[in-house]
């Protein structure tokens, strides 16, 4: 007799197949899931932060979509931007209080902010950089627009001032600047020369998904990530990159060699977007609220300052 004449039996077989497939997928997913959260790649390198014990500060509603961070003039304060309003916010990293704010442009999709002295650089998603010079007490600025070769297809999300070179570092979340020339699974970190006001066409540094996967999974498998922030450690000069897709932070040296990997806990970092250091070398990471409160996580440097790893040789 045909199975079509036995609907109960047919339903049971179909259900059994579904359960087997789901169970198999669950097993594969489980066996491929990372076993650790912290990966010290170079045994000679001492990672200066304890990611198990951050100070997490909730932010007010104005910063629920916080998208970039940079250190501010006063100790413990950070300059931030969110991805809708043409405003900059000074926020206390310990209390979450907004202590100052000022307008610099029209409401657009802003993704990052960097500072060198009184010069502030705000990164737009299409790669344009909005430059302004801060003056105490001024509440509204007319920013100068620095155009780059990036566009919306690149979705530029991270920017920082590189204290080692005097350039700005920019990371695209999506397509590389020259995708036809780019290595598959490599994410470039590009330099913008402030003196010449031009973007260098080739990345200065990169993160390789296969190299990350080799460390995290222990085999040749890419760890898929999409960078959302970049910062330079003022003491070691290492480059830190965070990714909201992948919830990961990767530390590389100036030869693009991976030194440390941290998998960011989603409970704290729902959507990590901003990263920066203060001049003492303490680390800050911001995360959008995504249905809740946005936060800034602060990590106090545990090595107390410059160490033998300062030049990371």
TrEMBL record:
Location in the cell: Cell membrane
Q: Which GO terms describe its cellular component?
A: plasma membrane
Its taxonomic placement starts with: Bacteria, Pseudomonadati, Bacteroidota, Saprospiria, Saprospirales
Protein's organism: Neolewinella agarilytica
Q: Which UniProt keywords apply?
A: Cell membrane, Membrane
Q: Which InterPro entries match?
A: 6-blade_b-propeller_TolB-like (IPR011042), WD40/YVTN_repeat-like_dom_sf (IPR015943), YjiK/CarP (IPR009722)
In which domain of life is the source organism classified? Bacteria
Q: Which family does it belong to?
A: Belongs to the YjiK family.
> Is-annotated flag, keyword Cell membrane?
yes
Name of this chain's protein: Uncharacterized protein YjiK
Q: Does the keyword Ligase apply?
A: no
């Amino acid at each position: 007799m045909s199975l079509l004449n036995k609907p109960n039996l047919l339903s049971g077989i179909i259900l059994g197949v579904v359960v087997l497939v789901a169970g198999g997928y669950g097993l594969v997913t489980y066996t491929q899931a990372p076993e650790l959260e912290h990966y010290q790649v170079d045994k000679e390198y001492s990672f200066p932060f304890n990611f198990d014990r951050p100070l997490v500060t909730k932010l007010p509603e104005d910063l629920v979509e916080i998208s970039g961070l940079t250190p501010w003039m006063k100790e413990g304060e950070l300059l931030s931007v969110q991805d809708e309003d043409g405003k900059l916010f000074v926020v206390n990293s310990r209390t979450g209080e907004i202590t100052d704010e000022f307008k610099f442009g029209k409401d657009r999709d802003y993704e990052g902010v960097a500072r060198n002295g009184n010069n502030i650089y705000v990164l737009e998603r299409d790669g344009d950089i909005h430059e302004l010079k801060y003056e105490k007490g001024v509440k509204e600025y007319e920013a100068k627009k620095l155009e780059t070769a990036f566009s919306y297809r690149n979705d530029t999300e991270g920017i920082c001032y590189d204290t080692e070179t005097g350039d700005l570092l920019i990371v695209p979340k999506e397509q590389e600047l020259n995708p036809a020339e780019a290595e598959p699974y490599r994410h470039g970190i590009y330099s913008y020369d402030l003196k010449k006001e031009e973007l260098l066409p080739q990345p200065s540094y990169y993160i390789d998904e296969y190299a990350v996967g080799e460390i995290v999974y222990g085999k040749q498998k890419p760890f898929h990530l999409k960078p959302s922030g970049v910062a330079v450690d003022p003491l070691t000069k290492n480059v830190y990159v965070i990714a909201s897709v992948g919830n990961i932070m990767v530390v590389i040296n100036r030869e693009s060699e991976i030194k440390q990997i941290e998998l960011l806990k989603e409970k704290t970092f729902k959507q990590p977007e901003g990263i920066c250091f203060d001049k003492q070398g303490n680390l800050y990471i911001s995360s959008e609220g995504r249905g809740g409160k946005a936060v800034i996580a602060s990590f106090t440097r545990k090595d107390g300052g410059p160490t033998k790893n300062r030049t990371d040789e």
